[in-house]
Structures are given as C-alpha cells and as structure tokens.
Design a protein that fits this description.
This protein is mostly beta strands. Helices cover about 10% and strands about 35% of the residues. It contains 5 helices and 22 strands. The protein has helices at about 10-25, 35-45, 265-270, 315-320, 400-410, and strands at about 60-70, 75-80, 90-95, 100-110, 115-120, 125-135, 140, 155-165, 180-185, 195-205, 210-220, 225-230, 250-255, 260-265, 285, 295-300, 305-310, 325-335, 335-340, 370, 390, 395. The strands form 5 sheets. Strands 2, 3, 5, 6, 8, 9, 10, 12, 17 and 20 form a 10-stranded mixed β-sheet that branches. Strands 13-14-11-18-19 form a 5-stranded antiparallel β-sheet. Strand 21 (about 390) and strand 22 form a beta hairpin. Helix 1 packs across helix 2.
Length: about 425
C-alpha cells in the first residue's frame, strides 16, 4: 500500500474525532453540522491532494440525431465503431424505422468525437453505414456506404461499469470496490422496449448493501411495466425482513415521481445465499482480493439479472441514454439509510429523505461512485485507491496514475481508464 499523505498525525486525529462527532449529531441536530470541518475531513481522507473543485466526475457525453432512411432500411443503430471494420463496436442507440425520419439519443465516451450510423434490413443484416461526427444533428441514410452484408461484425450492447464506496457521508478508503456493478443497455423486439442487464461483479465490504436503478428524468408514469427476463430476482428467497428496499415490486415510484427499478435488498445474499450458524447473512469481501481467506475474502461467481422495461411510447424508449441511468446503492450510516448515487444524481434521494433540504452541506465535489464507460473495466484490489497523488513528494501511485491527474484537472486525462499502469494492483 502507498500512503497518500504524510500530514501531522495529531491533525488527522483531531479531524477524525471532530468530524465523527459532527456526523453523529447530523441526523438529529442539523444546526450543529459544521460544513467547513466536514469538508476538511473529506479532503484529508481523499486520495488526491489539490482536487479540482470544479470536478463533475463525468466521462461521457450525450446527443440526439435525426436519421432519414429509405424503404429498404427497417432499423438504424448508432455504433461506437464501424462494425464492418472493428470487432469492438457497441450499440449506443437503436430504433425501428420506416421510410422517413427517426430521432435517436445516444451516449459516447467523452474523448470520442465520431460514431457510426448503421442501416439494417428487415432480416437484421447490416446494409451499410455512415460516419457520425458528434454534434451532427441530421444524417441522410438514403445514401450510405455498403461493404457487403457478410462482412459486418455483430456489435455488442453498450455496457458501463459502476464503482462504489459504501460509506457515505463519511469518507472511505476510496478503492471504489465496495460494490461493483456493470449495466448493459439493449433493445427488445418492440420499439418501446429497453432491456437493462445488471451484473453484480464484486462486494468489497462486510456490511449489508442494497441496490436499485434510478432513471433520471423518466417519470414512473412514463413506464407501462417492468418485467424480469430471467424470471428470478438476484436476491430471491431472501430470509430476512426487507428494510433497505422494502418493496417487492420491480418498478417503484421515487420520492420525486421518477422511475426506480428494484435490483436487490442484500448484495451478499445475491452472490452467496449463505447464512451463518446464528442465522445471519454471511458477510465477507467478494472478488476484491488476490489473497483469499475463508470467511474474510473469497471468490464468488458474479450474478446477473435482466429487466425488460416497456415504455408507453417508442419515443420515451429512444430517449433513455446512459446519462439517465443512475444505478445506486443503499447503505446504513449512523442508524439511518443513505443512498449513494452517480455524481450527476448525488443529491437525488429517491427513496429516503436523507438531506432534509440540506444538500449543500455535503457538496464537496467528491463522489462515492465512479462511472466508467467501459464494460470490461478492471477495478482495484481491496484497499488500493484507483490513483493517488501526494503534494509533498509530487508522486503518483496506483493502478491508474492518470486517475489522480484527472482528479486535479477534470477536463484532461479523460482516457485514464483505458489503460492500467500497474495491472497487478487490479482484480
């Protein structure tokens, strides 16, 4: 392990004790909350000195494009690469079309400035493509480049990785592996259907954590129904009373009226389904350590579930981009339940009235969730931050050195996750 800082130990002790006391008082006496002291505490414990105070933790961009097609084109897709030439193309958007115009919304990695529009025939074969420069509002697919249907590779569904610290509002160790989830967006046969596949990859904490998906800007009433494709929840046969997410419904109405998908009540039960001799749920670190210790750190098979979301109109389905998909976890702190969202939705307490109108007190530009637009992203091993920077030595350390640089300058180093510097520090 590599320490981030070498500050005075007495100062660290003072900050820890003082911040712990004020956090304990927060739930019952909001007026005693000392925001400056809390921010000092978070800043001290964070992995990078001199963090960019304008940081938005964003690695993606979204746009819409209107596509004109002829009668031979039955479906159009926006791909992250040209699938006539590349094997790693992902489907960023898809829509059934007829002769005329179709508008699609799509999301790309922030560093990527070009995508491709693909035209498909009624049998699903690829007719051809045209390049799409990000920001272009119209594309004419009545005239496209054709290279022969047999030469097209089958693109994959677009997948993002979500990494969590389950300690909010207190800072954690910032290895971002307390919960690791991957979410894949794909499309059903009907134009109003979107499929979200959730893969629970790792649980690096030994306390209960629940999970859901908040659909930002999507009203509960915009959705007709949500069904399980697998016909079995991740935490089926859960033997305890449900407290973190009490509803058994797949689709829930959030406090703000927006749609929330119920994913799981207990991440450990979802992966292991084990109970201790006293009847409690077995809790250990799963898939975060190379050094395995029975009952402490073990390996487990990732688990997957797919939700079929039927919107009330095809237009609503086509508008669901990844910047609206907000997977979140629910964890307990100081006797209360706290939600940890992606940074864009950090203060959207969709299930519980966490902040009670006091969101600004926690607005310290630190995120307890990292969203990576890469489906096979390798995450840190237990206790290893993604990347650290020490201002006194000027030294960076960790599996992704440019993560530390990105923390200092959010408009640069936006490809930090593409290549690891020290892969031996990754799971």
């Amino acid at each position: 392990m590599h320490p981030k800082k070498h500050h005075n130990d007495m100062k660290k002790y003072f900050l820890f004790i003082s911040a712990a006391l004020l956090l304990c008082m927060t739930s019952c006496k909001k007026e005693q909350f000392d925001q400056e002291l809390y921010n000092q505490y978070v800043d001290y414990e964070f992995m990078v000195d001199y963090m960019d105070k304008g940081h938005d933790w964003n690695l993606v961009k979204s746009d819409t494009v209107t596509i004109t097609t002829g009668s031979e084109v039955q479906k159009v897709q926006i791909l992250t690469a040209n699938n006539f030439e590349a094997d790693d193309a992902e489907i960023a958007a898809e829509g059934v079309c007829h002769e005329g115009e179709t508008t699609l919304a799509y999301t790309l990695p922030l560093y990527q400035d070009q995508a491709y529009v693909a035209a498909l025939a009624s049998d699903g074969s690829y007719l051809g493509y045209r390049p799409l420069d990000y920001g272009t509002k119209t594309v004419d697919m009545t005239n496209y480049t054709s290279q022969g249907r047999s030469s097209a590779r089958e693109p994959k569904a677009q997948t993002f990785t979500y990494l969590y610290e389950a300690s909010f509002p207190e800072p954690g160790d910032f290895d971002y592996n307390d919960v690791v989830m991957r979410v894949t967006k794909s499309y059903g046969l009907a134009s109003y259907v979107v499929l979200l596949t959730v893969k629970l990859e790792a649980v690096g904490i030994r306390k209960q954590v629940a999970a859901g998906i908040h659909l930002g800007g999507v009203k509960y009433d915009d959705i007709y129904k949500v069904e399980l494709v697998s016909r079995q929840k991740l935490d089926n046969d859960y033997p305890m009373p449900r407290r973190y997410i009490q509803s058994n419904d797949h689709l829930m109405r959030g406090r703000n009226g927006e749609a929330v998908i119920n994913v799981l009540e207990d991440a450990h039960w979802a992966m292991l389904k084990n109970r201790a001799s006293d009847g409690s749920i077995t809790r250990m670190e799963l898939n975060t350590s190379h050094d395995l210790t029975p009952g402490v750190a073990e390996q487990a098979e990732p688990v997957t579930v797919t939700y079929q979301i039927s919107f009330k109109s095809p237009e609503q389905a086509r508008c669901l981009t990844f910047d609206r998909i907000d997977p979140f976890i629910v964890e307990e702190y100081n006797g209360g339940l706290w939600e940890v969202h992606t940074y864009r939705y950090k203060f959207n307490d969709v299930l519980y009235n966490i902040f009670r109108g006091n969101q600004n007190a926690y607005d310290n530009h630190v995120s307890w969730c990292v969203t990576v637009p890469k489906g096979d992203f390798r995450y840190s091993i237990e206790g290893m931050p993604l990347g650290t920077y020490n201002k006194e030595s000027g030294e960076t350390f960790g599996p992704y050195l440019d993560f530390a640089h990105w923390m200092q300058s959010h408009k640069r180093y936006t490809t930090w996750y593409v290549t690891a510097n020290n892969p031996q520090l990754l799971y």
